[in-house]
Every structure is written in structure tokens, then in C-alpha cells.
Amino acid sequence: MNEEEIKEYFETQSKKYQPRKIKYLLIAESPPGNIRNYFYYDGPKPKHQMFFQNIIIAIYNKHCATDPVCRDYFLNKFKEDGFLLIDAVKYPIVTYNNTERKKIILNELPNLTEKLISFNRQNLIDNKTKILMIKKLVCELLTGHIEDNKDIIFDRSHGLGEVGFPMFYKDPNFSNYFINFFKL
Prior knowledge:
Elements: H1 3-16, E1 24-28, H2 50-60, H3 68-80, E2 83-87, H4 98-121, E3 130-134, H5 136-148, E4 161-163, H6 172-182
Parallel strand pairs: 1-2, 1-3, 3-4
């Protein structure tokens, strides 16, 4: 796949698993460099990805490994339960250093802002939607912007959640923060 096809794949897959009403919005940095590691990957031979596993363990206390049937079940359950994961940047930026990532995330901020506002226009989010940002750099760059923008609707009484990227499989800090933030 070329770069445009990969971006289209990420967008299509994300929309495929978009709930009718977003109760819990997760904002990560960007898709991974390997398409088989993508959170919404539902093709054959998914990789044993730490990010997907930590989210599923945190929410459902289940380990899914590389079983496509299990992944499909939890991707659909994730959707049914009102969860949506989006990325601040639509394409992989894993090969860039932090200075370059920061510039890219800030350059993509208008697109992310428009996406969040469009969720409101489509009645996908409301003032009960909880937003959790994942990864330190994403939190540092986006928290103030999202909180200050009154056109972005979310549960302001609850505030924005911020959690670091999981450090290893079954990361208890990641799971505990997830559980406590979303009151799972």
C-alpha cells in the first residue's frame, strides 16, 4: 500500500468501529508504522500488540493475543460500549524524534479540532462524553487547546484524562488509570 492508501485504510477502519454515541473518546498520537499493529486492524495475522492488549485488559479484563476472532469480538464490543480511539495525526509518525513529532502534532491540530467539533455537529458526543488523551506528548500539546475551545463538547466537570503510553503488556498503571478515569 502507498501512503495515501494507508491513510485511507486507517480512516475507513476507524469509521467502521465508530459508535453511534461516543461515551468515551481516546486520543492517541498516531497510527503505528506497521498496519498489522493498528488498533482497528481486523485482517489476518494481527501482531501481538501491546497497545491494543492494554486497552482491552483495562476495559474488559481479557487478553486477546493474536486471535483475529477474539480481536473482532472486542473491536465490536468496544464500539457497542461507546468507545472510540482516534489519533491526533492521521498517519504514522513513529520514526520521527520528539521535536519533529511536536511540530507535526501542532500542524495537525486544526484537523483534530475540526474532527472533534464535527463529532458535536453530528451529535456523536455531548457533555457526558469523557476524553482521555494517551501519551505524554499528546497530553502536553493538546490539553490546554481542547479545554479552552468551547466548541469542543465533552464532560467538562470530569475534565480531560491524561495517561502515558503503556510501558509493557498488562501495565497495571495504565489499567488502573483507565479504570479510575472511566469508572469502569
